[in-house]
Design goal:
The chain is an alpha/beta fold and 251 residues long. It contains ten helices and eight strands. InterPro entries: ThiF/MoeB/HesA (IPR045886), ThiF_NAD_FAD-bd (IPR000594), Ubiquitin-activating_enz (IPR035985).
């Protein structure tokens, strides 16, 4: 690190758990953020400010006026722009030392697997089960930890699925792909603005912990937030050894 980096990240370096070594890991890391909306905005902003060296933003949507109530990475002046381009501009303003790749596309199949395999950590900030299951499958196959978040109305949840650990579940252990779950969209149901900030920021925190190798991750635990009462519930999530996605791992 040069003098400017030492100054910029000095408050991290002062933490014994991070120090120079941990910050160096962050600077060398690549984070893949799927979704540049309500969750992806705070997640990506904190990853950039914390010094994650490379961030890849993936989102095929454009900035809409209705997004601005909660998607804090975007501005009124950038309505109509691709969200990933708006996001890249926002991240460059916060930390020009971070290399940001903006992919205005819907990634799937081999393309998704390639992107996941190139990352040190993946943050799923999408808003539908099909994408979440596709990202989870790619993470399991590549052995890359996944930080998953969701938010609708006043209800949020966040967890880590790190199948590098033999005892840890994957997303499909919690939400089996063959089971039908009701899809709910904030465009229909609404969402409390600060809720996505809380969940997205927690996703960033878990990703930074995983990269720096500090603390205990949320692997094996699901945190659920009722923002009306501001109450958290923690649920233990066990590995399903018959899971069609990750069940073939060693016991």
């Amino acid at each position: 690190m040069d003098d400017q980096q030492l100054l910029r990240y000095s408050r991290h370096i002062l933490l014994d758990e991070i120090d120079i070594e941990g910050q160096s890991r962050l600077l060398a890391a690549h984070a893949l953020v799927i979704g540049a909306g309500g969750l992806g905005s705070p997640a990506a902003l904190y990853l950039a400010s914390a010094g994650i060296g490379r961030i890849t933003l993936v989102d095929n949507d454009t900035v809409d006026l209705t997004n601005l109530q909660r998607q804090i990475m975007h501005t009124t002046a950038r309505v109509g722009q691709p969200k990933v381009e708006s996001g890249r501009a926002a991240l460059a303003q916060i930390n020009p030392g971070v290399a940001v790749t903006a992919l205005a596309e819907r990634v799937e199949g081999a393309r998704l697997q390639e992107l996941v395999a190139s990352a040190d950590v993946v943050l799923d900030c999408s808003d539908n089960f099909a994408t979440r299951h596709a990202v989870n499958l790619a993470c399991v196959q590549a052995g890359v930890p996944l930080v998953s978040g969701a938010a609708i109305r006043f209800d949020g949840q966040v967890s880590v699925f790190d199948t590098r650990r033999d005892d840890a579940p994957c997303y499909a252990c919690l939400f089996p792909p063959e089971r039908e779950f009701e899809e709910v969209q904030c465009s229909v149901m609404g969402v409390f603005s600060p809720l996505v900030g809380i969940i997205g920021t927690m996703q960033a925190a878990e990703a930074l912990k995983l990269v720096a190798g500090i603390g205990r991750s949320l692997a094996g635990r699901l945190l659920i937030l009722d923002a009306r009462e501001m109450e958290w519930t923690q649920i233990a999530v066990a590995r399903d050894r018959n899971c069609p996605v990750c069940g073939k791992r060693h016991a």
